[in-house]
Structures are given as structure tokens and as C-alpha cells.
């Protein structure tokens, strides 16, 4: 059994694979102040709770965009699982050609998403990840990672409204009944939701035009992917665990 761990700015997502099947998954808040014991015990206990013996875990593979948590996470895995984890980074085989100005600056999360998209859906493809930031990652018809787009996440945009405008409240991100709001909350939700749907569809349209390819698969992932996909005309598929599948694929190439 392989344990895959995707460390994001907001959440850590953990998955357990038995061969090619994702048999269990968990989510915890990213906290850089947690000790190696706290992180190691958490992982040990969630495995135990799901009746997965530590001895069943053959290896652990991690992608992280939060360097400050890695020492504690690695040491926690070594101490409680007795495994030296594989970290996605320079020198790791990914199976995808990265054609950007500086491949070393590309986040591990974007690499694993691109790898999974290529192997699960083929090329060309666009992966939209609704995380702390919203990222659009583009795989060319030849199967290369050629770049993408980074925009503020929808929660960042909502927090900016709340923090910078004295009379605007903090609101939940949801689809309002109508785009014309009759009160402040509905108006903010309309702007956030429909503004984001419009942004997604327009960016995808521009990327497709630049790719000059008619058959581009568009996959969404991340916390708000399903909400946005309900209204978006561009998103064709939602895969909540594409990063975990990408990590499993990368592990197979490096084992």
C-alpha cells in the first residue's frame, strides 16, 4: 500500500492506494507549527482508525508547497511509519517534459496535477486547481507541460472584500438565486461566484485559442471545483483527488 500526501497552503490531503485504487483519503489543516510527533501520530492514528496496519505501508510520496512544514512531516513519517518518504522535487522522474523558462520554480502541486491529467485524460489538457490560489496548468498536444495561469483564489478575493471595505461582511462562498442581489450578502456572493465562473470560462477560452487545438480536456480540482463546475461551460470533469493520483504515478516511475 502506498501513502500519498499533498501539502497545500490551506490543507494537507492524504490518500492510501492499494495497487491503483484509492482506498481511503483524509484531510487536515496545514499548520507549520505542528511538531513531528503531532504530524506522525495523526497519520499513525488515521491509518489505525481505518484498520490499515503501519506494516502495510510500503512507501510514502509527498508533494509540498509549504517548505516550513517539511522537516516536521518527514521526521514524523520516519519516526512513526519507519519510512523514508519520496519527495517530489529536482531529480525526481515525472514522465512529463516541462517546457517553461525555469522548470525548477514550478510548484510540486502543479507538477503532480499535470502528470495525473496527462496519464488519466491524455493531451492536450488544462487542469484548474481551486486552492488558496487558483492555477490553470496546460499540457500541450505533444504531452508537455508548457505553462499556465495563476490568479487569486476565490476565498482570497472574498477575504479582501471583507478586510478592505469597512461595511462589507465576511460571506460564505455559494451560488446565489439571482445575479442581481437585493442585499449586501447576495450582491457579494453574486460578484464572487459569477465573477469567478466568468474568469474561469474566459481564461480557458483564451488558452484554447493559444493552443490552437479544438479537443482540449478541462479538469477541475480543489475545494470549490464542484461549485464552480455547476455553472461553468468550460469545465468538463471534476477530480477531487487528481493530485493523489499524480503522486502515485510519480512513485511508480521512481520506485
What is shown here, in short?
The chain has 255 residues and is of the alpha/beta class.
Fold topology:
Blueprint: E1 2-7, E2 11-18, E3 21-29, H1 36-49, E4 59-64, H2 67-81, E5 86-87, E6 97-98, H3 108-121, E7 125-130, E8 133-139, E9 144-152, H4 154-164, H5 184-211, E10 217-222, H6 225-229, E11 237-238, H7 242-254
Parallel strand pairs: 1-4, 4-5, 6-9, 7-10, 10-11
Antiparallel strand pairs: 1-2, 2-3, 7-8, 8-9
On the 0 to 100 scale, the average pLDDT is 94
Unreliable stretches (pLDDT < 50, length at least 5) are none
What spatial order of strands do you see in the largest sheet?
6-9-8-7-10-11
> What sort of overall outline do the alpha carbons produce when their principal axes are compared?
globular
Helix content: 25-40%
The name of the CATH topology of the largest domain is Nucleotidyltransferase, domain 5
In what range is the share of β-strand residues?
A: 15-25%
By CATH, the architecture of the largest domain is named 2-Layer Sandwich
- Number-wise, the strands total 11
End-to-end gap: 13 Å
Structural class: alpha/beta
Helix/strand order = EEEHEHEEHEEEHHEHEH
CATH class type of the largest domain: Alpha Beta
Alpha carbon gyration radius: 19 Å
Structure annotation, total helices: 7
Q: What's the story with the biggest beta sheet?
A: 6 strands, mixed
Q: What is the number of domains?
A: 2
